[in-house]
Amino acid sequence: MTVTVQRPAGAGAPIEADLFRGLLRRHAAAVVVVTAEVEGRLAGFTATSFTSVSLQPPMVSFCLSRAASSWPVIALAEHVAVHVLDESQEQLARTFATSGVDRFAAPTAWRTGPYGVPLLDGAQAVLVSRVVERVAAGDHAIVLAEPIHGEHASDGAPLLYHAGRYRLVR
Asked: Domain Flavin reductase like: where (predicted)?
């Protein structure tokens, strides 16, 4: 079910993109990498839009620009893997945030996991999830997914993103 909200007559215009970006830079967010595979095509990207949506049933979400190079695979994938990154994985986050590179080439260490999704080594937690719905939201899509397999490592500190930089919890 998709709910469309109409802007009431006389409502103000949305804020400018630069102001919006500046405001959101003040929000600290955990860093994840989302991966998928469709017909032999691998895709992965770094995101800070990951969140828990529901406990019953378990459901998570993340957002991705529909102009992103990973979108064609994510748009078709039945399953994705969400990797919660550890504070030691800043370079992995940078790799998956870089356009025009083979994100799965060495030194990226990964293996094929359940449902054929690529699983990155060393993540603090991994949620292999079945995609439930994709909702268009402006120039992005909100992807809702139901975790069906999970793994976690030690309880190390997470990698965070704040004010345009990767940060460590201290």
From this structure: 24-168
